[in-house]
Write a structure and sequence with these properties.
heterodimer, A: 7-stranded mixed sheet, about 20% strand, B: about 325 residues, globular
């Protein structure tokens, strides 16, 4: 009996060992070729995609990262807050002295993925027939366009009804990626099949979309752009976007070598995960970058709220929140404090911080609350207040845990409520029936974006608009004039003043600047500084060390 | 076969599914929030754009009107068009059904085989060490949350040992691996994760009903006829002991479908569970409703099939 068992076991051992051997051979990486070109990149994306037409679809973080590889904008806005514009499909442009006529000189070597030439007719069609009516921000961005004329195939002249210092930035692919007239003319755009398999001018071409599983693009061999050292772009032969909704699985897949790159989205990687991934010696590193248009975490304060309507209460809450503690405990130090004498939330543009920044100071906060009439009761409590956060962000619950104990120190009880995005739209942004709400807002690359959250015309106008109900004519004027002012020196002055007023009134309290985290295989190269989710992956390459399974 | 009974049961499915439909349609409306947000995204939009979207989706009509329109569509076989995916609901569901069917089938087979084998093994010597160890394993397996077990298996087998894939149904780049082998390795961890709870329950069921069956007179008769242990266990006792197990597996299917929602998200398995999760987060009403119809229909139909299966397993049962 025993011998029989032994022989069965020994019969099993050999095939099992063989299996392990075969698997280990299959998974071993072989280094091939030394050119930067070639190879595939597998990118993990957290959510399923709905639509690949970046000209009309909401700019969600991962969605934009995918579709932008198929398209180009007319120009590109620098992400460093210097307002620099880089040529893309428009190789140069002239703005008339009154700021109302913009002449775009287009590249003549650009083809659509189906081989047809890209011309000025596509520019006219893209802005007037696609982006203006079908992009969620289209009306805001292009309502001042009076006409677009096309004197020749590579020249487009845009006439505006009034001057707008920000108009050129609206030609970035973030707001309007070019769409082919010869395919889309006369189509029902929102329902077109084109949205599932688009044709663009971008560095990669669409190949396949298996819903819920993968999206595949291949290299556009005729792409017009070259790298700074003259290499034909893009470098990679194929891009695979693998859909992985579970955050833990996303990181596990990267560590197991199934994917090569996870693109950042707010709150996807907790502070302690960053150090764990970086300490594990497996060739995977988290890279963090901060940009001028980088996201800041803000707390909206309801100006009509029972307690937050009182300026002294808002200022007291600001004094109570220990931002340093939050950055240290939640973000493992990977975040920028914007509450000090050096940095505010638009210092990247103004170059200076507002004089008031409410450093952590419990006794000052208590004095403010006392003078506002909120005395402590017998058990040391003053009042109860609530804060809403979106369920998708995994850092906010931890931030609010710290904030809860911060506020408790001065007798304020904090009630934390978790909601999904559409419930927040309803409760916070439309009905404005809330006390406080924490969210991430990008303030750049042009400070004009502040108009959305602080101008009184945007009260109750939807997602992350002026939902604190802040109504200050002086701010309205500064923001309006800032948009129309073409002189950069005068313009900057206006925003310095606005920054100061907003810091004092605190309709929204800026806490810290979160950093963009890209987690990727160390063999990869070419992620340029200035790269954010608004740009494609054309410069990314394996630096001649393509793994055999890519 | 009693055809009257079959007709009666088939007709019963209709009010059940219709009831589920109306209830879920109304319940979705109760959830706070606004589906239009999903079309606007982080940059926001002006009210005119919102109104335009609302009109396109038919959300400008009253809830009652929407419900009537929807029911009309369903009765003519039209499940509508997804709000966000630019495709018909039936096509989307059809495309995503196969992965779930594969995962569910393999999990049921794994759970049943694993449960029956250990259950029988435990029942051969009740209250012995082997029985106690088996029951501790069962207790352990059905107390574990599925998603946690899934994560642990991923960390051990995929991240640390690197012998099984983390996620998906197939490799992005197949390379020189064989197609079948690639599919099987991807199926292994999700199957174990989803099938383990079923396995644990089946184990306990089989053990209990085996012990009961082994105490029956016909077993004594079989023994006295000099039949081998194997024949007695598998041919005589197990056949009778399996009856409640079949019912149980049938009843468990609904739970397993809900388990698939979690497991598919952990393993990035592109099936109906993942689709359901997306549809819920995006407030894609037509898709959510379509999934409700498909899932409730399949659970009702499977229960129906099991009832019929019963008559074959136990000739004493007659359908009335």
């Amino acid at each position: 009996m025993r011998n029989k068992t032994l022989s069965t076991v020994s019969k099993l051992i050999l095939p099992v060992l063989l299996m392990f051997f075969v698997i280990s051979i299959l998974t071993t990486e072989k280094v091939v070729a030394a050119s930067k070109h070639g190879g595939a990149l597998i990118i993990g994306v957290p959510g399923s995609q709905k639509n690949l037409n970046s000209a009309i679809y909401p700019k969600t973080f991962s969605g934009q990262l995918i579709s932008i590889n198929l398209f180009d904008g007319l120009l590109r806005v620098s992400k460093m807050g210097d307002g620099k514009l880089t040529p893309m499909l428009a190789k140069s442009w002239d703005v008339s002295s009154d700021g109302k006529t913009i002449t775009l000189n287009l590249r003549d070597d650009v083809n659509w993925h189906d081989g047809k030439k890209f011309t000025s007719e596509d520019v006219k069609f893209g802005i007037l027939d696609i982006c203006r009516p079908h992009h969620p921000q289209g009306k805001n961005n292009y309502s001042i366009v009076e006409s677009i004329t096309t004197p020749d195939p590579y020249k487009a002249i845009i006439k505006l009804s009034k001057s707008d210092a920000t108009f050129l930035t609206k030609l970035d692919s973030k707001w309007c990626s070019m769409a082919p007239k010869h395919i889309l003319e006369g189509q029902d755009i929102p329902n077109s099949d084109y949205n599932n398999a688009p044709i663009g001018t971008g560095p990669f071409k669409f190949v396949e979309w298996k819903k819920g599983d993968r999206i595949v693009f291949e290299r556009n061999k005729d792409y017009w752009a070259k790298s700074s050292n003259g290499d034909q772009l893009p470098y990679l032969d194929k891009l695979y976007f693998k859909i992985l909704p579970n955050k833990t699985s996303l990181i596990s897949s990267l560590e197991a070598g199934e994917i090569d790159f996870i693109h950042s989205y707010p709150g996807y990687l907790a502070g302690k995960e960053i150090s764990r991934v970086n300490d594990a010696d497996n060739g995977i590193k988290v890279h963090s970058f901060a940009y001028a248009n980088m996201a800041f975490d803000f707390i909206y304060m309801n100006m009509k709220g029972k307690h937050t309507g009182n300026k002294k209460v808002r200022q007291a809450i600001a004094h109570l929140i220990n931002t340093d503690e939050i950055i240290d405990k939640v973000f493992a130090g990977v975040a920028d404090n914007v509450r000090n004498d050096k940095q505010g939330f638009i210092s990247w543009y103004t170059g200076e911080a507002p004089s008031q920044y409410y450093p952590y100071n419990v006794s000052k906060a208590e004095a403010l609350l006392d003078s506002a009439g909120y005395k402590k009761d017998g058990s040391g409590n003053r009042f109860k207040i609530s804060i809403i956060h979106e369920q998708k962000n995994s850092n906010h619950p931890k931030v609010l845990d710290i904030m809860r104990s911060n506020l408790k120190a001065a007798g304020i009880e904090l009630d934390v409520m978790k909601m999904d995005a559409s419930a927040i739209t309803e409760k916070v942004h439309k009905k404005m029936n809330y006390d406080m709400y924490i969210t991430t807002i990008a303030t750049g690359p042009d400070p004009d974006l502040l108009t959305k959250s602080w101008h009184s015309k945007n009260i109750g106008k939807g997602w992350n608009a002026n939902s604190s109900g802040y109504n200050n004519k002086k701010i309205d004027n500064l923001l309006d004039n800032g948009r129309g002012e073409l002189d950069p020196v005068k313009r900057k002055k206006m925003y310095v003043e606005a920054h100061q007023i907003l810091a004092e009134d605190i309709p929204m309290l800026a806490l810290y600047g979160t950093k963009w985290l890209w987690t990727y295989n160390e063999k990869l190269d070419g992620f340029p500084i200035g790269y954010t989710f608004r740009d494609g992956l054309e410069t990314v390459n394996w630096d001649g060390k393509i793994p055999s399974n890519r | 076969m009693n055809y009257n009974y079959l007709a009666k049961r088939t007709l019963q499915i209709i009010p059940v599914v219709l009831g589920i439909l109306v209830m879920s349609f109304l319940m979705i409306q109760l959830a706070p929030g606004d589906v239009v947000f999903m079309f606007i995204g982080e940059s926001g939009a002006d009210p005119e754009f919102e109104a335009q979207i609302r009109k396109r989706l038919g959300l400008d009509k009253s809830v009652l009107e929407q419900l009537i329109l929807y029911l009309k569509g369903v009765l003519t076989g039209d499940l509508g068009k997804s709000f966000v995916m630019n495709e018909s609901v039936s096509k989307i569901i059809w495309d995503r059904a196969l992965p779930t069917i594969i995962l569910m089938s393999s999990s049921i087979i794994f759970g049943a085989v694993f449960g029956i084998l250990i259950g029988v093994y435990a029942a051969t010597k009740p209250y012995s060490l082997r029985d106690n160890v088996s029951m501790v394993i069962a207790l352990f397996l059905y107390s574990l949350p599925n998603f946690w077990l899934g994560q642990m298996l991923i960390i051990v087998f995929s991240v640390n040992w690197g012998i099984l894939p983390v996620s998906g149904m197939e490799s992005m780049i197949l390379g020189d691996k064989s197609f079948l082998m690639d599919r099987l390795t991807h199926l292994l961890l999700p199957t174990i994760t989803l099938g383990s709870t079923l396995g644990a329950f089946v184990m306990r069921f089989v053990r209990a009903s085996m012990i009961e069956a082994l105490g029956q007179d016909y077993i004594l008769t079989a023994k006295s006829k000099g039949l081998s242990d194997g024949k007695i266990f598998f041919k005589h006792a197990l056949k009778n002991a399996l009856l409640p197990v079949v019912t149980y597996i049938g009843l468990r299917l609904g739970y397993m479908l809900s388990g698939a929602v979690v497991i598919e998200s952990v393993f990035g398995w592109p099936g109906l569970g993942l689709l359901m999760l997306d549809a819920l987060f995006e407030r894609d009403y037509p898709l959510i409703m379509g999934l409700f119809i498909v899932i409730s229909l399949s659970v009702t139909i499977i229960t129906f099939i099991i009832d019929i299966l019963y008559t074959y397993l136990d000739p004493r049962i007659r359908l009335k």
